[in-house]
Amino acid sequence: MKEIWCPLEDMKKERLWYAIVTRDRYGKIVARERRKSHSFLKAWNQIVYVQMSRVNLAGMKDTGGVARTLSIHENNFIIAVGIGSTIIGIRVGTGDTPVDIADFAMETPIEQGVAAGQMEHLACTVAVPVVAAPSCSSLVSRTISNNSGGVITVREAGIYLRGATYFFCGTRDVLIAPQAVPNGGGITIDWTIGVTE
Amino acid sequence: MKQGKKLKQVQPVNESLSYTVEVRDKEGRVLQRISAPSHCYVAQWNQLIRCQAAHATTSIVITDGFPNSNQEDIITLRCNAGAGVTLYGLLVGKGFTPVAIDDFALEIPLEEGVGVDEFNHQAVTFTAPAVVGPTCSFTIKRIFVNNSGATISDIREIGAYVSGDSPARSYCGFRDVLPGGVTVPDGGTITVTYTIPVTV
């Protein structure tokens, strides 16, 4: 099993970290990776700004690269989404270009489906935050299954979220070790968003 | 800038929430400046983000100490308080108990007014997010004017109250205890500026 696994106690000091577990068709773990996420992106902070200041912000690139004007909205920050949807929630992809603060999408996102290079996305959930001094953290989780008939190698992961009626990329990370997901297997991503006193 | 031992400067940081506190006398001369990393998002901040991210009701403690079943809302994280408003926005206080993750308010917030230990709160202002290198950040600023007729001393805490699902109640988003007491002379001001960044 390939393993890049930072101690949990170290991770608890970080504001954002992720754990990825790859399983084969029998549920056996074939690789896992846990480390600090470097990568809240520009769009995340822009949405925080819009909500705090109540000032509209023009020029925000959505996940299609189209400049949008964002305003305060009850939909801002939505991440949770149901089965099969890829407009928001955790996404994975095959791109490996290093993260840039201005990234507005995954480099090569994997689409929903069972055709070559596609994966099936289960629901993306956002758990109730847990307060355990000195931190308060919330877990964003999603399992993505490979029923494409071939191996798919995942090299990037991120979170798409809603801003009003648009969709933005809030975080993106390039994995240290590419995750080869066998046919019939799956990859589970747990993203922890934390604050620490 | 007035010279002397009151001027204190700590290295600013770029990669996490940070703050600057500046005190001026009534002539506008800087008497003291503190720049430091903020350690101190508190639990309510993350709980509000979760409430929005999940679009699900989340129990969050409001600034009076009672839990509220908060729903997603258009005013979540609102912090742009106008002049005189202390329900939300940046605040200062006299408490100095170290920050805990479950702090739900400033310990001893100073109120609006011209009475003893009261400030006139100016409107909260923002700079738009700007990208510099690997960082995207914006700032939140508020000026507090001391028109109380006397010096206000021992200011030890700063923080931000933000809205949730109701314009009538607020949550504490972050709180910091200053490294030492700050004194604002009559007619003087204290300016608090928070920088909120994300860095890849």
For the termini of chain B, the CA-CA separation is: 36 Å
Record field, number of beta strands of chain B: 12
Beta-strand share of residues of chain B: 35-45%
**So how many helices of chain A?**
2
Largest sheet of chain B: 7 strands, antiparallel
Low-confidence stretches of chain A: none
Instruction: Determine Rg of chain A (CA atoms, Å).
Output: 16 Å
The secondary structure category of chain B is mainly beta
Which assembly state applies to the chains in this document? heterodimer
Structural class of chain A: mainly beta
Description of the molecule:
The complex is a heterodimer of chains A (197) and B (200). With 197 residues, chain A is mostly beta strands. Chain A has one domain. Chain A has two helices and 13 strands; from the N terminus they run E-H-E-E-H-E-E-E-E-E-E-E-E-E-E. In chain A, strands 1, 2, 3, 7, 8, 9, 10 and 13 form an eight-stranded mixed beta sheet that branches. A three-stranded antiparallel beta sheet of chain A has the order 6-11-12. Chain A has a two-stranded antiparallel ribbon with strand order 4-5. In chain A, strand 4 and strand 5 form a beta hairpin. Chain B has 200 residues and is mainly beta. Chain B has a domain of 138 residues. Chain B is 6% helix and 42% strand. Chain B is built from one helix and twelve strands. In chain B, the strands form three sheets. In chain B, strands 1, 2, 6, 7, 8, 9 and 12 form a seven-stranded antiparallel beta sheet that branches. In chain B, strands 5-10-11 form a three-stranded antiparallel beta sheet. In chain B, strand 10 and strand 11 form a beta hairpin. Chain B is globular. The N terminus of chain B is likely disordered. Classes of the chains: A mainly beta (197), B mainly beta (200). Chains A and B meet through helix 2, strand 8, strand 10 and strand 13 of A and helix 1, strand 9 and strand 12 of B.
